[in-house]
Design a protein that fits this description.
5-stranded mixed sheet; about 25% helix
Length: about 700
């Protein structure tokens, strides 16, 4: 027992692992209440316009069909702050894939067949769906995603750039990218006695409950949302999506429990995507590499339904000590599905462009790219002027260089060859903000020695149950096996969603405070515990959301080695190495898994992943895993993830930073820089597919 008294940091296995591999863990659409039926959406096949006719007669005549919900027959919803959820409320078509009807039938097969039998006629309107064709139509928004000012200016960046002895002026482009979690979006909804219960694949059940209560005009205590196990989300399950609203509408209409799982081909158009980004980077420096000007301008798209602006220029406000700086966002409203969060929103495309441009500046200077980054290490956050709570980027770069063997690198492009293969190595830095939100939690000490922690956290595959048990065990001074965690349903103390790498920091803060309070009560108590146990609670509102006098970020360094086949243009990543400064690591096993998972996602961003829009129909092309290529095992090399021991007392009681997204942020740039080193060709548009690379060669 003593060996596990200090549980934080120990590589403890995930508690739910056995339940998942044996099938005992139930996901949202694996709940089947008595009388459960199935729903299948009918979605628009035009890019913009209006439905003029919905003929449901043939569908209603098929076996097993109970109803076809249309804007004429669907339940009326209250207005929502999120117009993407206003489904089946009118006949407008704002983009391809918008839900225009919903079939409900006894079986999934019957629902799907009936959906195909619905006949639809449209009145179409001219559409605009390609960002490159509408860059001139982009406007400056008030804010970028996350509440960041759309533009920040310091000094005279244009003048400093024009006067700088060494400059780069480059354009980088990242295509639309799509969330494809292993578990597609789905929900099972049931109305009973005026109450709604929804089993939803969501990153935050409390948010889903609040939105459903608003839409269906219910008190929140009459809505229960269960998200006990979630098979990945990557941001696409961070807010309620249309599937849970549609399932709830169908259940209300039919009086039966309804199960709805979106087909994977519907995900790109119904649950968000990473918007394409067009970057212009201008860097000016002294001959010794001292930055004089940093200008990062980003243009992206949003839908006409709801504004969402990828905050891709924001990372440049954190990274380097330029004397003058401009970071700006512009956005074009197009007839496309509404973009949303995708893992490391803003940072992933923004740092790809920035770190690629920094590599170009190093080339122009004839300077080692690590030394250029070290030369411009800021003493405080450039944008805000706040001191960093901790910043060990230089240590990450130095340790990574040593582990990777950077000192043996020949800096000349095309210097290494093995037959038809050109070999190269690259480096990039990474940053991700420390985010935290208020949370509540309770912990109960039982007479038999069991401690039960309750908090409505969501485990999206990251091991939240396990790490929260470790936080509790540490605070209580007991072995982690004495702690049980209950998460994933709105009957538990309210908690924020699992997103922005903020989950553990937010929930763990409340768990730690509740356990501290319980420990004090236990020390002061003289008699035995009551049969129901002794409970303590915590609410971190006012502390977790208090303004900090420090700039709080995680940092990392990424290294990549690639082989480029000159005959085919194929790029193979041979090695990936990441070294991170992410506060206190709470579980070595799950942390390493998170880091590596992010790096694999960055590899996919660099080499294979690309969403394309058909300009005629406005549809995303390659909308399933056959057409949208994510890395397979054969694409993934040996990957190493390491971290430095970082103590930061300005974060939370655990001293932890988020780790879910820092792994992806610098990977694509490191791979792109390695491809340049191998080939001598600078590719400025992702992904680095064989056709694109071979054309450059």
């Amino acid at each position: 027992m003593a060996s596990q008294a200090n549980a934080l940091g120990a590589p403890i296995e995930r508690r739910e692992g056995r339940a998942k591999v044996t099938g005992d863990a139930l996901y949202a659409t694996e709940y089947t209440p008595p009388g459960c039926v199935h729903a299948w959406p009918v979605t628009a096949t035009v890019a913009r316009g209006r439905v003029t006719s919905l003929d449901t007669a043939a569908a209603l005549g098929l076996p097993g069909v109970l109803a076809v919900l249309t804007p004429d027959t669907a339940p009326r919803l209250a207005e929502s702050d999120d117009p993407t959820l206003a489904v089946l409320q009118d006949f407008r078509v704002p983009h391809h894939g918008w839900p225009i009807a919903l079939v409900v039938a006894e079986t999934l097969e019957e629902a799907r067949a009936a959906a195909r039998a619905v006949r639809v006629e449209y009145e179409t309107e001219p559409n605009a769906s390609i960002l490159d064709d509408h860059l001139a139509d982009a406007y400056r928004p008030e804010e970028a995603n996350g509440g960041h000012p759309a533009e920040r200016r310091q000094g005279d960046p244009e003048g400093a750039f024009a006067a700088a002895p060494v400059t780069v002026d480059v354009r980088y482009r990242v295509p639309p990218l799509h969330n494809h979690p292993m578990e597609p979006h789905g929900a099972t909804a049931r109305w009973h006695d005026g109450r709604l219960t929804a089993y939803d694949t969501s990153q935050g059940a409390d948010t889903v409950r609040a939105v459903l209560a608003q839409l269906f005009k219910l008190p929140e205590d009459r809505v229960t949302v269960v998200s006990e196990h979630v098979g990945g989300g990557f941001g696409s399950k961070g807010t309620p999506r249309p599937h849970v609203v549609l399932a709830s509408m169908a259940s209300l209409h039919t009086g039966r429990p309804v199960k709805l799982t979106l087909a994977r081909r519907l995900l790109p158009e119904l649950v968000g995507h990473r918007a394409p980004t067009d970057h212009r980077l201008r860097l000016g420096s002294e001959p010794d590499g001292t930055l004089l000007s940093v200008i990062h301008e980003v243009t992206t798209h949003t839908s006409r339904v709801k504004e969402f602006v990828e905050q891709a220029a924001v990372p440049a406000r954190v990274m380097y000590d330029g004397k003058s700086m401009l970071t700006a966002h512009r956005v074009a409203a197009l007839d496309v599905p509404t973009p949303s969060w995708m893992r490391a929103p803003g940072e992933a495309p923004g740092m790809y462009a920035l770190e690629s441009a920094v590599d170009e500046l190093a080339d122009a200077l004839g300077m080692d790219p690590i030394e250029l980054r070290v030369r411009n290490e800021p003493g405080q956050e450039p944008d805000s002027g706040l001191p960093f709570s901790s910043r060990h980027l230089v240590e990450c770069l130095r340790e990574g260089a040593e582990r990777f063997g950077w000192a043996e690198r020949d800096p000349r492009p095309r210097a290494r060859r093995s037959g038809s293969l050109l070999l190269g190595t690259g480096v990039a830095a990474a940053t991700y903000p420390v985010l935290v939100s208020p949370s509540r939690a309770t912990v109960t000490a039982h007479p038999d020695g069991l401690y039960v922690v309750r908090v409505n956290a969501t485990d999206i595959g990251t091991g939240a149950r396990t790490v929260l048990a470790q936080v509790a065990a540490q605070a209580l001074g007991v072995g982690v096996e004495a702690v049980r965690t209950e998460i994933g349903t709105t009957g538990l103390p309210r908690a924020p969603l699992a997103g922005g790498s903020s989950g553990t920091a937010s929930w763990g803060w409340a768990v730690h405070e509740a356990c501290d309070s319980l420990s004090r009560q236990l020390r002061e108590r003289t008699g035995p515990l009551p049969p129901e146990g002794l409970t303590a609670s915590a609410d971190t509102e006012g502390s977790a959301d208090a303004e900090s006098p420090y700039a709080r970020h995680a940092f990392g360094a990424h290294f990549a080695e690639v082989a480029v086949d000159t005959d085919t243009g194929e790029v193979r990543v041979r090695r990936l190495l990441g070294v991170y400064a992410a506060g206190r690591i709470l579980n070595a096993r799950t942390a390493r898994s998170q880091f590596i998972g992010g790096m694999v996602m960055g590899l996919g961003m660099a080499l294979t992943e690309r969403g394309s829009v058909d300009p005629a129909s406005g549809a995303f092309i390659g909308n399933d895993l056959a057409g949208y290529h994510v890395p397979a095992h054969a694409d993934v090399p040996a990957i190493e993830a390491h971290w430095i021991d970082e103590e930061d007392e300005h974060l939370n009681p655990m001293g932890s930073k988020g780790i879910g997204e820092i792994g992806i942020v610098g990977t694509a740039a490191a791979i792109g820089n390695a491809v340049h080193h191998a080939t001598g060709v600078r590719y400025r548009e992702l992904p680095l597919t064989p056709d694109r690379v071979h054309g450059g060669l």
